[in-house]
Specification:
about 40% helix; disordered N terminus
């Protein structure tokens, strides 16, 4: 399958016009007003400026493109129009919380999708009180997978521990089996943020389980200087480096690795180190680099082709650069849009074809079961695999695949595979139950809730 050769998004490309537009959207659009009875509102805590703008513009661009498609093609969800506005966070927690406080008072809030671990952590208690779901696709707090405790938080498709398990399993497969990991050296190079630090315990546990040694090295935010870290890695002489980066940290890591002589084909990126914007700025230093993903890149999927034709063809596309259509971040935004819209649709089937409350949409997410047949019907076969959310499991058993950069495009190099949920679930439950005890939360009974539904 072909994939676009997307140009890197530089900070210069984020024009003053875009910044002013984001500011206008994030202020004027937040003025109080009565919601129409046939509208469902998505507050977007987006980031279109700053060091992580490539991820923000791609993801929120894809999310908005899918909502636009549903409105234009279907008239919304069963006649209920989808509405949204943006509030600029620059990926900063304080700004994200300010946006939350401003946007939450709009009627008809469906769900929150901040695409930021720090902002999500800051919102967990509030969304529980407000009874509105918080979606942290491919990231977030790992133990929020346990919906018995975290009723309103959904780390859909892939939580950080599942990601770590998937990466270790992939390295094991490359070496000829997990038993071959014994005696190997792995360095985890992680972003110095709550997101980056989330997987420190699980990599230590996986190292103990499989007998490899692990060294975990922090790169301070934003990551544009890594010489000392890579000189340390060169001295360690690991077999593999796992790159848990974000934004500018990723191309800098690949270029610095080349300078110290570490081979790109032994660097494995996580889900926030897997985009075109991560590899293109690194030039030939990125060739051979491999990364995990929950959604494929490229525009050769019916839903992407429909967006390109009907949304961008009508001049309503959200991306400034059409060459980014089908890029990794754009496709993740589209998949996230599918998950949000289908949760609303499922909830409408139970509660009525009308504007829903946040708690009703939460019910929809807890019954979000899209098998490969339904994914194909949505025009997304091959874009992502499936999802099976329940009261107990807010991740939804998402599958992962691995892609390798050939210097011009991503090429899928594995089948869809499942992380080791049997290994991870007890760890998740131990943490979530401790959280429940600490915060005085009642643990839900999934069987009883399913029976009552």
């Amino acid at each position: 399958m072909s994939r676009p050769n997307t140009r890197p998004l530089s900070l210069k490309a984020l024009s003053l016009k875009a910044a002013l537009l984001g500011a206008l959207i994030g202020t004027a659009a937040l003025l109080p007003g009565a919601a129409r009875a046939d509208e469902q509102y998505f507050p977007l805590q987006s980031y279109r400026v700053g060091p992580y703008a490539a991820g923000g513009t791609g993801f929120f661009g894809g999310f908005i493109d899918y909502l636009t498609l549903v409105n234009n093609r279907d008239g919304g969800v069963n006649g209920v129009k989808l509405t949204w506005d943006e509030c600029e966070t620059q990926y900063e927690v304080e700004r994200g919380v300010e946006c939350y406080k401003r946007q939450k008072n709009r009627p008809g809030v469906a769900a929150w999708n901040p695409l930021s671990v720090g902002i999500a952590y800051a919102m967990i208690d509030d969304v529980g009180r407000d009874k509105v779901p918080l979606i942290t696709v491919n990231h977030g707090r790992t133990d929020s997978t346990d919906g018995r405790v975290f009723k309103y938080v959904f780390p859909l498709l892939l939580n950080p521990y599942s990601e770590s398990s998937g990466i270790v399993n992939y390295i094991g497969a490359r070496e000829g089996g997990l038993e071959k990991l014994k005696g190997k050296k792995i360095v985890v190079l992680y972003h110095g943020s709550p997101y980056g630090k989330e997987t420190i315990p699980i990599y230590q546990l996986l190292a103990e389980k499989y007998g490899f040694s692990v060294e975990q090295v922090e790169v301070p935010h934003p990551g544009n200087e890594q010489q000392s870290q890579w000189l340390s890695i060169r001295r360690t002489k690991p077999d593999y480096v796992v790159l848990r980066g974000w934004g500018v940290m990723n191309p800098v890591a690949l270029k610095t690795a080349q300078k110290v002589g570490f081979p790109a084909d032994h660097i494995i990126g996580n889900v926030w180190s897997n985009s075109e914007e991560d590899v293109i700025p690194a030039g030939d230093a990125a060739k051979g680099y491999t990364a995990i993903t929950t959604q494929a890149s490229g525009a050769d999927y019916p839903v992407l082709q429909e967006i390109a034709k009907t949304v961008y063809g009508a001049g309503k596309g959200n991306l400034d650069d059409k060459k980014r259509i089908g890029s990794v971040y754009h496709n993740l935004g589209i998949v996230n849009g599918i998950l949000n819209v289908e949760a609303v649709r499922i909830a409408q089937d139970k509660f009525g074809k009308r504007t829903l409350t946040g708690d009703e949409v939460r019910w929809g997410f807890e019954h979000l079961r899209l098998d490969p047949t339904r994914v194909e019907a949505l025009g997304a076969k091959g874009l992502f695999h499936s999802i099976n959310v329940s009261v107990a499991n807010h991740e939804g058993e998402g599958r992962v695949t691995f892609q390798q950069w050939d210097g011009a495009k991503w090429k899928v190099v594995s089948d869809w595979i499942a992380p080791d949920w049997a290994l991870l679930r007890p760890i998740i439950e131990k943490s979530s139950l401790a959280y429940a005890a600490e915060h005085g939360l009642q643990v839900r009974d999934p069987a009883a809730e399913e029976a009552s539904n």
